Amino acid sequence: MKMSRAKPKKKLDPILFFKKMLSYSLDIICAIDESGSFLSVSPACEKIWGYTEFELLNLPRLSLVHPDDLESTINAIQNIISGMEPINFENRFIHKNNNIVHMQWAARWSLEDKMIYCIARDVTQEKLFQEQLMRTQRVESIGSLAGGVAHDLNNIFAPIMLNASILAMRNQSPECAKAICAIESNAKRGAEMVKQVLSFARGTEGKKGQFAPKEIVDQVIKIAEDTFDKRFRVISE
């Protein structure tokens, strides 16, 4: 009885393997020297930074680093070479189209080769998501604060309107009646504004309706006439 021989395993060329892995990687795999100049970089650089490998190798050192991150990037390179942290760090690169790209780096210094081996990942979308989340949280905080302030103001306006009504019943002087009317009117406007702030804080959708601009203008004029010195005149056209 003949024994079937197992087919020998196909040997994989390690150089070919790494070339394939470099070409398929979504992250940038690169090597830089002690000054920060690129020595080798994977094809993903063109998708992430807009530059081909040939262009990158001929650019001045650290020329793509955002100016505000240049000092921290140089410090990171020096720390990596000296064996200190950070081994992982983040900075911003300037894309060929001038957009900002947020990069996250993992790097190791090779004493034998005198170069830094790096893996760089584009985390721009994650950063944008974090910023959007922070903005949402700030809006929620503002809503909570506005709700608390509105409640306090409501407690202030309520006795003003109540006492204005009592004073209106007790005083018959035309001047006092006019002043009390102005106080009551402004307190009601303030209370209405508080109501709107509370609606915003609670996320209540505002009611839509029609309004006459002339009525609003007339109210503003009346408030101005009751508030400012009589030497001032409000003229509407």
Write a structural description.
This protein has 237 residues and is an alpha+beta fold. Helices cover 53% and strands 15% of the residues. The protein has 7 helices and 5 strands, in the order αββαααβββααα. It has helices at 14-24, 44-49, 53-57, 70-81, 124-170, 174-202, 213-227, and strands spanning 28-32, 38-41, 88-94, 100-110, 115-122. Strands 2-1-5-4-3 form a 5-stranded antiparallel β-sheet, sandwiched between helices. A hairpin with a 4-residue loop joins strand 4 and strand 5. Helix 5 packs antiparallel against helix 6. The longest helix is centred in the middle third of the chain and has 47 residues, at 124-170. It is rod-shaped. The model has no long low-confidence stretch (mean pLDDT 79).
Secondary structure topology:
Layout: H1 14-24, E1 28-32, E2 38-41, H2 44-49, H3 53-57, H4 70-81, E3 88-94, E4 100-110, E5 115-122, H5 124-170, H6 174-202, H7 213-227
Helix pairs in contact: 5-6
Q: What is the H/E order? A: HEEHHHEEEHHH
Give the overall average pLDDT. 79
For the biggest β-sheet, the strand order reads 2-1-5-4-3
The biggest sheet, with number of strands, parallel, antiparallel or mixed sense and barrel status, is: 5 strands, antiparallel
Number of strands: 5
Low-confidence stretches: none
Q: How far is it from the N-terminal to the C-terminal residue, by CA?
A: 114 Å
Could you estimate the helical fraction of the residues in percent? 40-55%
Oligomer: single chain
User: How big a fraction of the residues is strand?
Assistant: 5-15%
Number of helices: 7
The secondary-structure class comes to alpha+beta
Q: Give me the Rg, rounded.
A: 35 Å
| General form | rod-shaped
